[in-house]
Design brief:
Chain lengths: 267, 253, 354
């Protein structure tokens, strides 16, 4: 059984080096100059503003993508009015944002809606700034996180099959009632899992937001882009402070993920 | 539906159109520019290395987490997803702190003449970190599905442990390793947040493609950015397509 | 509910699942849709339910065309093959679902649910979840749930397929009695002929999307309309060369005529056991199989193989033994027609040989 020991030991080593030590490091790093500097770093106006921006983006993006993600998953799995070929095509398009570098995702939005483009100029005229402003950042995050919800809900829908829904319709229930009474209870933990993943991803989104936002302090700076800027300015302790908050959130989300995953498996 | 098309299809088409808007020759010029070309090649090279490392680590860890029962297993299993949950910029910062010149490891490496941070090794580490969960998560369900009796059947037929592993278990895991590796590779190609913080971004040396694109945008050259983007995108799409081929063949069986 | 179906067709892409099916069903009848798997039975059922749209043809309930009526408004109860119970609801809530949709009062719902729970023998299980029930109990819940909104028509898709063979026959009788007592028009799909024969008032045989025959189980058995029906229902042997069968040597002048012979068409006896010797032909016993209540005998007449049964009361046969065989009738068919022919020697014995 010594081979077994060796493998388990190696696994611990990899985890320790790659995941656990860094986590401890960041926790220690943030406090290295004393609690005061950590608090100061966090309470800088730009930190507070950045965290608020991140919060807004997370909430808006999660709400929109949950709604549309569940809808699209329903269409792709249950929709009969879509031909098989179109369905397959859409199905593969859903994954595209996973394959697109966030920076490129941001670039796309700049190219499409930037001030020099037709659409961008149009919005500018009516006083609605997209790029280098909050809407663009939300859009970029929406793009990056779009597949998550669809990919979480689709397999669940496929697994439960359509018979329960058909049974409901045979008893006189119309689609909306059927969805809430029959479909929703079966998919809700899948949706919750998707929400947690979407929150995690939009919280951490960096590349796309950096490109779209222009990273203007106190205006379009998010928590992650602030970390980036602090590092570029060699202000490592400050970066650590914000990073610790983000990391704490991530670990919390990870725990939620585990919980949701377990509940998902029960049903 | 419309939302879906607008959000995803339109931007992707937009970038292809933009990159070709000034004709093929302009497109080729952008790509053929030595710095751009070097950035793309460097990215591919490092992503391949990171993927290979992850294939080895991922196969081992996936196996250990499914097959062995030992204290801390469930915690480790949850920790696998940490790189997904952690903002990549934070991941980059972690590596910077851990391996930077001021740190223990960084100092040690420097003493023996290896430079990590702001050089290629750091980029590989960042990529490995970010893509760590892919291979593990891809092979775990396969291993769970693998009937123990298949293994036992091999033993009763006189196969040794090693032979059983290579002839029975590995082939079962192979599609998972392949698709996980493909995803990890495509993520590695695309990675920006973690890499930009640790790479130093020296043009022609440690400047990866995504950072190069960012630089082009910052210096107001969307044309060049779009051209490299298209190159990278096409590569990623190709990988995605291969992955879905692997998966559909597997479900077809 | 009186049901009329005219020229029903359904295609899935290139696959023509249901081909020009027409039939009438009288009110109160229990109908079995019988046929091989993948023959289009379930498609017909789903079109009746409104879960599938016909490619062409009309479905008429009570003289009213319902093609465009959504399933919600057809007033049909449907029992799915795997029951499709709502996993997250108790037995009570499952049965109450259709009543809640109709916005009935709490007391009304309670009364109806408890009545059905009792009727289906599920008393005491109201607060269990589907995963806490046995297969037979789930089937009863599915049945109670379908009946709750008082449908005009009950459709059952392979209702016994997922049930252990042991309790299947018990459940069959139970279901037949229950449907009779409720008095509802019902159609069930099955691929098991025994089940169809035992439960249904009338059977419709479906094969490759076509309705082959409709009639009572006895009529279908006695007078199969097509070779497919003849071979699908009951046991039979197909004989391609009629020349060795006594009485049927010149049965048909049409080429390509084959005979389908059921075990009970054959009378078998040791020399002297059969009175009508003139109509018999010699045969050799090849194999004997004990079937619990009788012997199954494999015979060879010349080079033709036949199968029949023999009572345990009669003398025991042995493989290799010479016996006499009287073929009472044969079901003959060729590409253009099919008919039943009684053995002419039997009807018109030649007295001089007696």
């Amino acid at each position: 059984m010594s081979i077994r020991r060796l493998w388990i030991g190696l696994t611990y080593v990899v985890f320790g080096l790659l995941l656990i030590v860094p986590l401890i490091q960041i926790a220690v790093g943030a406090w290295s100059d004393g609690a005061q500097s950590f608090v100061d770093a966090l309470l800088r106006p730009q930190s507070l503003h950045a965290l608020m921006m991140t919060g807004i983006i997370v909430v808006v993006v999660t709400a929109i993508n949950t709604l549309f993600g569940v809808m699209l998953a329903l269409y792709l799995v249950r929709g009969t009015w879509l031909g098989g070929k179109i369905k397959r095509l859409l199905n593969s398009i859903v994954d595209l944002p996973f394959a697109v570098s966030p920076v490129i995702g941001g670039l796309m939005i700049v190219l499409l809606l930037g001030p020099n483009t037709i659409i961008g100029a149009f919005f500018e005229d009516i006083g609605f700034k997209v790029v280098y402003a909050l809407p663009g950042m939300i859009l970029a995050t929406l793009f990056v996180t779009f597949p998550i919800m669809v990919r979480e809900v689709m397999p669940v829908l496929q697994e439960i099959g359509s018979q329960q829904e058909e049974a409901a319709s045979m008893m006189g229930a119309y689609p909306w009632y059927t969805f809430w009474m029959v479909t929703w209870p079966s998919i809700r933990f899948g949706v919750i899992y998707g929400v947690v993943l979407t929150v995690a991803r939009s919280l951490g989104e960096f590349g796309a937001v950096l490109v779209v936002s222009g990273n203007i302090m106190n205006k379009t700076q998010t928590a992650t882009t602030l970390v980036y800027q602090d590092v570029e300015n060699f202000n490592v302790v400050a970066a650590n402070g914000v990073a610790l908050v983000l990391a704490a959130f991530s670990v919390g989300l990870l725990l939620l993920m585990e919980w949701a995953k377990k509940r998902k498996e029960v049903h | 539906m419309l939302y879906f098309v607008c959000l995803i299809v339109l931007p992707i088409c937009g970038i292809y159109v933009q990159s070709l808007s000034e004709g093929w020759s302009a497109f080729w010029e952008s790509i053929a520019e030595p710095l751009a070309w070097k950035a793309v090649m460097l990215t591919i090279k490092l992503a391949v290395i990171a993927t290979l490392i992850n294939m080895a680590l991922g196969t081992m860890i996936g196996w250990v987490l499914i097959r062995y029962r030992f204290p801390g297993r469930t915690i480790l299993n949850s920790l696998v997803d940490l790189p997904f949950a952690l903002p990549t910029a934070v991941g980059g910062l972690l590596i910077l702190l851990l391996l930077g010149p001021g740190s223990l490891v960084g100092g040690l490496a420097q003493a023996i003449g290896i430079q990590i941070v702001f050089h290629e090794p750091a980029i590989v580490v960042a990529m490995v970190f970010v893509t760590f969960p892919f291979v593990i998560r891809a092979i775990q369900p396969l291993l769970e599905e693998l009937d123990k009796s298949e293994e036992e059947a091999a033993y009763t037929l006189g196969a040794s442990k090693a032979k059983t592993f290579f002839q029975v278990i590995l082939p079962t895991m192979a599609p998972g390793i392949a698709s996980g590796a493909m995803l990890a590779f495509s993520r590695g190609l695309a990675e920006f947040g973690a890499v930009v913080l640790v790479a130093g971004n020296i043009p022609g040396k440690t400047l990866v493609a995504s950072v190069f694109i960012f630089g082009e945008i910052e210096s107001n050259n969307p044309q060049g950015a779009a051209a490299v983007s298209v190159l990278l995108l096409t590569l990623s799409f190709l990988i995605l397509w291969i992955v879905s081929m692997i998966q559909s063949r597997r479900s077809g069986q | 509910m009186h049901i009329e179906v005219r020229g029903l067709n359904k295609s899935f892409g290139d696959f023509h699942a249901v081909k020009d099916v027409s039939f009438d069903i009288e009110k109160g009848k229990l109908i079995g849709l019988l046929g091989p798997s993948g023959g289009g039975k379930t498609s017909i059922l789903r079109m009746l339910a409104g879960l599938e749209t016909p490619s062409s043809g009309d479905i008429v309930f009570h003289g009213k065309r319902v093609n465009d009526l959504p399933p919600q408004e057809r007033g049909i109860g449907f029992v799915f093959q795997n029951y499709a119970l709502f996993k997250h609801m108790t037995v009570y809530d499952n049965v109450a679902f259709g009543l809640k949709v109709k916005k009935q009062s709490k007391e009304q719902i309670r009364e109806r649910v408890m009545y059905l729970v009792e009727l289906t023998g599920l008393k005491g299980f109201e607060h269990r979840y589907p995963h806490q029930l046995s297969g037979g109990q789930r089937q009863r819940v599915a049945f109670a749930r379908a009946l709750a909104p008082e449908p005009q028509l009950l459709l059952l898709d392979e209702p016994f397929a997922a049930i252990d063979a042991k309790i299947r026959s018990e459940l069959r009788t139970w279901l037949k009695d229950l449907i009779e007592s409720v008095g509802i028009t019902s159609i069930f799909v099955t691929h098991d002929q025994e089940e169809a024969i035992e439960v249904a008032d009338e059977i419709m045989i479906i094969s490759k999307g076509r309705l082959e025959q409709k009639g009572s189980p006895w009529d279908i058995y006695k007078e199969p309309a097509t070779p497919f029906v003849a071979s699908f229902i009951g046991e039979s042997t197909i004989v391609e060369d009629l020349s060795e069968l006594k009485g049927f040597e010149h049965a048909s002048s049409e080429s390509g005529t084959k005979a389908l012979i059921r075990p009970e068409y054959i009378e078998l006896g040791k020399p002297g056991e059969i009175k009508l010797v003139s109509a018999t032909m010699p045969a050799v016993v090849k194999h004997l199989h004990f079937r619990g209540s009788e012997w199954m005998v494999e015979l060879e007449v010349g080079s033709t193989k036949l199968i029949t049964y023999r009572s345990l009361e009669k003398d025991v046969l042995h493989p290799g033994e010479q016996v006499n065989v009287l073929l009472h009738r044969a079901y003959l068919f060729n590409d253009s027609r099919s008919w039943i022919l009684e053995n002419p020697l039997k009807v018109d014995p030649m007295p001089m040989f007696i």
